[in-house]
């Protein structure tokens, strides 16, 4: 599920945009290696040389793209945020109803988390390493959900009184189901867990 | 909303149970001071002398209860977990229906988080400082929700097919609504946010 090298990168605070295809490939390698290094060692123990070594790159090439370990970390959080968004968007289909769109987006997130187990630790550590990135990650994820809720309301499929807080509630449900069933235990399938979330979104938990 | 000094403390790994009322008061003071110190400075910058100074106690009295900053941190996470559970239990009432019990428990959590803003940072930092405490905090919170769900199913008020994952979904909803509306922004009341969660639990988000 790795992102194609020619995908545009989000703007990196303190990072430099590559201008060539080769540059984009190198940046992608650095970000992937950083995800493994930060995920395994945590921010403080992670090192730039550990990251370039994982990426199979010379230490000096790091500085073509980033000023510091901090700026790489910020870029990585921003990259992971964007990739979660991209994964969800790729599963959306105009033929889906609004509830189906929530299922597709959540399934994409679960699959991404299963394949990139390090995402939880990295995002969670951002709360301490770079609080603005942490907040931005969740604000932007909530915004994506809220845009889908608005679409569902416009189509008359969702209740007309949904507001921003409903999006945050759905995001929290998704994040914790992911933590429990994609990271801490793997005994239940994506489909099964997506069905639990869907059943709550569809009819709540009260006996009909 | 401070806990009465005579409340039993949860067993502390590495901590020593006080045997007298005076000892319990001192331990309570230490834990409250630790919550402020860890919440404000984070685990690594926090110091034992900063904590005893906040508590108005001599540095030496710290070691009557704890071996180290680590053992105090573990005790604090365990204490916060227990207090969240106690706050919820105190609002439960046999006259409530099962949905009302969820509202009461979530409102108690929101109020607790508003009054103890440091709880999020401390629990979140536990993922890095003491991962077992972090996991235990959420496993036990999910268990409390799942016990209430079982009660609601037995009473025939909740759908009979709810399982553990539904409890994790509800917990995630509550945690993220708390993060957004008790910690990051305060413009909406506990009642208003509890109503959002209730509306999802009651009928989902689909137009009836």
UniProtKB/TrEMBL annotation, chains A, B:
Pfam families: TetR_N. Residues 47-66 bind DNA. Residues 1-24 are annotated as: Disordered. Residues 24-84 form the HTH tetR-type domain. Keywords: DNA-binding, Transcription, Transcription regulation. GO terms for molecular function: DNA-binding transcription factor activity; transcription cis-regulatory region binding. PANTHER family: HTH-TYPE TRANSCRIPTIONAL REGULATOR BETI, HTH-TYPE TRANSCRIPTIONAL REGULATOR RUTR. This is Transcriptional regulator TetR family protein.
């Amino acid at each position: 599920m790795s992102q194609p090298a020619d995908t545009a990168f989000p703007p990196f605070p303190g990072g430099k945009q590559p201008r060539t295809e080769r540059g984009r490939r190198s940046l992608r390698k650095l970000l992937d290696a950083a995800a493994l290094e930060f995920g395994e060692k945590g921010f403080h123990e992670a090192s730039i040389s550990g990251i370039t070594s994982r990426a199979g790159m010379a230490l000096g090439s790091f500085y073509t793209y980033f000023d510091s370990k901090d700026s790489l970390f910020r870029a990585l959080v921003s990259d992971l945020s964007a990739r979660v968004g991209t994964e969800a968007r790729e599963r959306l289909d105009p033929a889906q109803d609004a509830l189906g769109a929530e299922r597709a987006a959540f399934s994409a997130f679960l699959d991404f988390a299963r394949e990139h187990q390090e995402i939880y630790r990295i995002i969670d550590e951002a709360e301490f390493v770079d609080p603005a990135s942490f907040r931005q990650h969740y604000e932007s994820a909530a915004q994506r959900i809220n845009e889908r809720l608005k679409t569902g309301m416009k189509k008359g499929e969702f209740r007309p009184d949904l507001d921003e807080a409903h999006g945050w509630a759905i995001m929290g449900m998704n994040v914790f189901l992911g933590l429990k069933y994609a990271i801490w235990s793997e005994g239940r399938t994506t489909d099964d867990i997506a069905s639990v979330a869907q059943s709550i979104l569809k009819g709540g938990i009260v006996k009909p």
